[in-house]
Amino acid sequence: MEQLNEIILKIENEYKSLLLEMKLSDKRKKHIEGCVELAYSLAGLYNIDQYKAVLAALLHDFFKELNNKDIIEKAKRLNIDISDFEVRFPRVLHGKVAASYFLDRGLIKDKYILEAIRHHTLGAANVSELTKLLFIVDATEKHREYEGVVELRKGIEEKNLDEAYILVLKKTIIDMIIKNKVLAPSTIGAYNYMMEVN
Ligand SMILES: [Fe+2]
Ligand SMILES: [Fe+2]
What's the CA-to-centroid distance between 80 and ligand 2, angstroms? Predict the structure, then answer.
């Protein structure tokens, strides 16, 4: 098995200029570190390509710091279809915008990495293992702090990938309901799909 630091070195070589371009706050940098670590270990556990998992984790929040206006502008420039939900909550677009940007510039062509980055915030139906993995990782990496996250991490440890994905989707949906927030259609679609196929 390839060590995490070897994978990171490889990525730093291959994506040097892109990584320099990535502007993140200190808090977000910590989140990325946590994601990279968890992506590596869960990919090992679930038998998923660790290089792809680490690369997706490293780049998934590339545009997270953009404000509403800038993210909409970038999405339009990249010809992304913007849903009603995304018009109301533009920052959820940061995954789609990042994936389209990487593809547009010919930097990442792997459809699984792009899909994982595209759907890491809200989840989606009928997605690959890598996408499920990044969704789980983003919500549960060690720096995340919210009610029930410790129990959620414990639950994931005992589950297979699909079960873990369902667990995080459920937690996301339940938390949104408790906080009286609008549910993202993509998250509900992911949940419904998983209920039907499992
Ligand atoms: Fe994100
Ligand atoms: Fe994230």
Answer: 20
Instruction: Compute the distance from residue 61 Cα to the ligand 1 centre, in Å.
Output: 5
Q: What class is the 4-197 domain? A: mainly alpha
Nearest ligand for residue 98 CA: 1
182: left (phi over 0), alpha (psi -120 to 50) or beta: beta
The CA-based angle 87-91-93, given to 5 degrees, is 75
Q: How far is ligand 2, taken at its centre, from the CA of residue 117, in Å?
A: 9
pLDDT tens-digit series, residues 165-184:
999 999 999 999 999 999 99
Q: What is the pLDDT of residues 11-20, one digit of tens each?
A: 999 999 999 9
For ligand 2, the distance from its centroid to the CA atom of residue 56, given in whole angstroms, is 10
Nearest ligand to the C-alpha of residue 138? 2
Distance set, CA 85 to CA 37, 55, 89, 122, 190 (Å): 31, 28, 6, 11, 15
